[in-house]
Amino acid sequence: MRACGAGSLGIAASAAATLLAVSSLALAQEHAQWPAPAGDFANTRFSALTDINATNVASLKLNFAFSTGMLRGHEAAPIVTTDTMYIVTPYPNVLLALALDAPGAPLRWKYESLPNASSQGVACCDTVNRGAAYADGRVFFNTLDGQSIAVDARSGKEIWRTHLADINHGESITMAPLVVNGKVLVGNSGGEFGVRGWLTALDAATGKLIWRAYSTGPDSEVLIGPDFKPFYAQDRGQDLGVHSWPPDAWQRGGGTVWGWISYDPELNLIFYGTANPGPWNPDQRPGDNKWTAGIFARNPDTGAAKWFYQMSPHDLYDYDGVNENVLLDLDVGGRQRKVLAHADRNGYLYVIDRATGEVISANAFVHVNTIDKVDLATGRPHYVAEKKPVVGQVVRDICPHAGGGKDWQPSAYSPITRYLYIPHQNLCQDEEAVPANYIAGTPYVGANIKMHAGPGGNRGVFSAWDVAVGRSVWEIKENFPVWSGALATAGGLAFYGTMEGWFKAVDARTGRLLWQFKAGSGIIGQPIAYRGPDGKEYVAVLAGVGGWAGGVVSGDFDTRDASAGNGWGNAMADLPKFTQKGGTLYVFSLP
Amino acid sequence: MSSRCPEIGICLLIALSLTACEREDRRFSEAAAAAKAPDTITQSDLQPGGPTPRATLASPYDDNAYAVSQGKQLFEWFNCSGCHAQGGGAIGPALMDEKWIYGAAPENIFASIVEGRPNGMPSFRGRIPTQQVWQLVGYVRSLSGQVRKDVASSRSDHLFMKKSEQSLPQAPPAPSSPPPQGQ
After folding, report:
1. What are phi and psi of A208, to 5 degrees?
2. Residues A325 and A342: beta-carbon distance below 8 Å
3. Whole-number pLDDT of residue A28
4. What is the domain count for chain A?
5. A253 in Cβ contact with A285 (< 8 Å)
6. Which of A242, A258, A395, A588 is most buried (CB neighbours < 10 A)?
7. How many C-beta atoms surround the C-beta of residue B157 within 10 A?
8. What pLDDT does residue B13 have?
């Protein structure tokens, strides 16, 4: 494997070229700024800054903190341009602009998007938002009630807003948009509400809809046409998004697009995952349930699909395919290949040729007892029959649980160590499938779930994965699921946060803990690094526990009911002893 | 009692069969009074000059085991459980504890279901027949032990998640403290 010259850094550079004014290009190239939650188009979450490094990180100090004034889960990454930091809060999705060029970073402006309060009822997993994106003087973000908004980065004035999702059919939006070729890419949430998933491109200038690609239904609406060349035979055929379902079930079949999008400018392809099929009860939807729980490669200008690969055909456990696709260049048997690395909910880490959709390798990165192996000839997983959910019967110890080996929390890749730093959980569950009843705008699930810690008893892990070799190099066990994003830096560091509220810096090679800070609430946000207007390197993260895993605190569950929060009540009953609610931004620097 | 009841045993029997009757009664329609929610719901204990007289309404099914068990089934069928889990809360708040945002009185719970509540509780107006709403009210109250133990449901025939409504301790709604007397 090469140090990602063309893969991540090269893409980072071209990402910067599109995203930022020419004057700031030099800074952007070394990731001095952080214009989107993933940092770059390749989704590496790697910072080339080295001021803060393994030798001096022990003296890292809090530089300033800023309360968001919100109590729900803070999953967003702050984003940073030359002199301003932008934060989207959880519902009610306030956009805060902090002036980094003034002492103590006061508010430059605050934009209130005022989403419909009722949208909180269709947020399956806390009223989170995963961040904003900056491009050409504008900040773009989405609201829980399904609007996409562009705000002037300087003045904080609204430029356009486009209403995309309908809460009365269970739709919401929680994802961070990605801006590619002058288009804002936005997908819906609501996989637990029987919605029909889609990804939409809006004109960044006007907010007008350019294309929409559904994840289920006829080819014409999935934007499958002559360019579509999936690698595996099972994905070829007409209208599979209709025929791989019982009649009409595709109309409420899920496949939402609430995770991450990456972009390869050379191939001019975007890559993103589709979420679980609905309902969870698999007996209500015999068939492969295309195009759910898989990865699409599409042309960002037309939306036309190039290939699709399904990690979990006929998903049995809510194994969404939305996790980040990290774009790398990898030496495979002496040949350089453009690949993507994808740590899936189903517990396997896939390395896929991103030009063709061919799976190069798939190795379990957590304890998995639901899938024996992935057959590389057919691309299909071998499901373990005893672990299949059955109506009216309890199946014990399904690993990984519905949240998967890893959920939304994005990993980071360092081209220096060539490791992927994966924040994840170690959880299993008992499950009983029950009939799901479709009532638009209400949950459509059909599974009673009770989660528990996996082998070893630790509920979370932060691990370093050698992508070329396909195995874990080191692992740090954490008491609670590691629900924060990861950050890797050229300073030889990896950063992550814990649900108790520890923000940690570890040695990128060995995993040795080098520094930690206890925040006021559990951390489920995405850490970033940037160079401030004063020329210093800063590391920033939002604390504020919640999300699906932290609902026990942010939603005040009564954990005498093990099913609270879709089964987390059982697994997380002790979290309130360790942390309480409250969103705060923390920014660190060397003294 | 003994003056009007010659035989204490018979008296007890009558009393028992009366309550038993209500407990087992399967009513197919609801009396006119209960067919709609009262218009006297108050959301605030701050009532200028002191509380005004206000009619309260007993839940028609607080003593009816059949209706409460119907309510339990409806709680699944109308996907209440999808948002409130089995009472411990998820998207919506826990319903088995002593904390209430919009009031624990039967008419308040009725209104929560029919009118909806601003932060994400759907309005089921016109979607659930009135009688079934009252059955749901009975079941919701049973989650926090607000109905008699012999009316509440026993253990479900499903993956065990929590003690049955019958065996959970009462969680009376947190009392509003009475205003000081005099001055």
Report:
1. -75, 145
2. yes
3. 45
4. 1
5. yes
6. A258
7. 6
8. 45
- Residues of A with active-site annotation: 192, 276, 318
Q: What pLDDT shows up at residue B15? A: 46
- Using CA atoms, how far residue B4 sits from A122, A526, B7, B17, B128, in Å, is 60, 76, 9, 18, 45
pLDDT at B62: 87
CATH code (residue A434): 2.140.10.10
For chain B, which residues make up each domain, given as ranges?
30-46+54-183
More confident residue, A192 or A13: A192
* Least Cα separation, residue A190 to chain B (angstroms): 12
CA distance A530 to A588: 11
For the record, the structure tokens of A53 come out as 């490094």
Contacts of A582 (CB under 8 A, 6+ apart): A67, A71, A520, A521, A543, A544
CB contact under 8 A, B85 and A442: no
Give the integer Cα–Cα distance in Å for A466 and B81: 43
Which of A90, A96, A82 shows the shortest CA–CA distance to A26?
A82
Say which DSSP state A480 is in: S
Strand order of the β-sheet with A419-425 is: A412-414, A419-425, A460-466, A471-478
Q: Could you tell me the maximum CA-CA distance found in chain A, to the nearest angstrom? A: 64
Determine, for residues A566 and B90 on separate chains, whether the beta-carbon distance falls below 8 Å: yes
Q: Topology of B30-46+54-183 in CATH?
A: Cytochrome Bc1 Complex; Chain D, domain 2 (1.10.760)
pLDDT of residue A186: 98
| Contact in structure between A159 and A150 (CB atoms under 8 Å) | yes
Q: How far is A127 from chain B (nearest CA, A)?
A: 9
Of A431, A558, A562, the CB nearest to B89: A558
Q: How far, in Å, CA of A513 to CA of A515, rounded?
A: 6
Q: Which domain range does residue A462 map to?
A: 3-589
For the stretch A540-578, pLDDT in tens is 999 999 999 999 999 999 999 999 999 999 999 999 999
Cα separation, A230 vs A353, in Å, equals 12
Q: Using CA atoms, how far apart are residues A19 and A26, in angstroms rounded to an integer?
A: 13
Rounded CA gap, A345 and A322, in Å?
Answer: 8
Q: Which of A560, A568, A570 to mutate to test the interface with B (most CBs of B within 10 A)?
A: A560
pLDDT range class, residue A534, cuts 50, 70, 90: very high
Cβ A31 vs Cβ A39: under 8 Å:
yes
Gap from B114 CA to chain A (nearest CA, Å): 15
Collect all residues with Cβ–Cβ distance below 8 Å to A229 and sequence separation of at least 6.
Answer: A306, A307, A356, A357
Residue B122, Ramachandran bin (φ over 0: left; ψ between -120 and 50: alpha; else beta): beta
- Report pLDDT digits (tens) over A230-240: 999 999 999 99
- Using beta carbons and an 8 Å cutoff, which residues of A are at the interface with B? 117-124, 192, 394, 430-432, 434, 437, 439, 441-445, 448, 450, 551, 555-566, 569
Judged by CB atoms closer than 8 Å, whether chains meet at B89 and A437 is answered as: no
Half-sphere exposure at residue B156, Cβ-oriented, CA atoms within 13 angstroms: 18
Q: 10 Å Cβ neighbour count for B13? A: 12
Condensed to tens digits (0 to 9), the pLDDT of residues A142-159 reads: 999 999 999 999 999 999
Cβ pair B86:A563 closer than 8 A: yes
